[in-house]
Amino acid sequence: MPSRVRSGHGRVSAATPAYILTTVKGTVTMSDTSGEVLASPYWLHAPCPSWCDGIHEDSDLIVDRRHRSGWGKQIQLSTMEPAAVDLGIVDDQVRYESCLLDVRLDQGYREIEPRIRVAEVHHRSRFVLTLTEAEQLGKALTEAIALTRAE
Fold this sequence. Notes:
By secondary structure, the protein is mostly beta strands.
């Protein structure tokens, strides 16, 4: 049976007090506060970053062996055209949604440091930001960097 690890509990903090990940002779083990040892995926050789909250499994493909943040900031871009979202439920209904930038942390399990991922929710490639929106993006990027520096 594949093991499942909630990686966000890789370090003890106020946000994640229930689990402890430890490394002994290259083997990562996870235990809860009662001391029960939980299995780690065979490929996870080091504790997760404190900001990681993904679920890691033995069966993860190499491209899925990533630490992902549950933390994120979204910035609505008010001067961008809305995106048409096909609901595809009945009669080809379409809903329009505002353009949103999503800022998150992401790190491959063998990468040295995390990356800040900025993506538009509807997969656009060009962005036009107001000064306020640019300021919000700057604050979100600064917060993301601060999370990684806390390691």
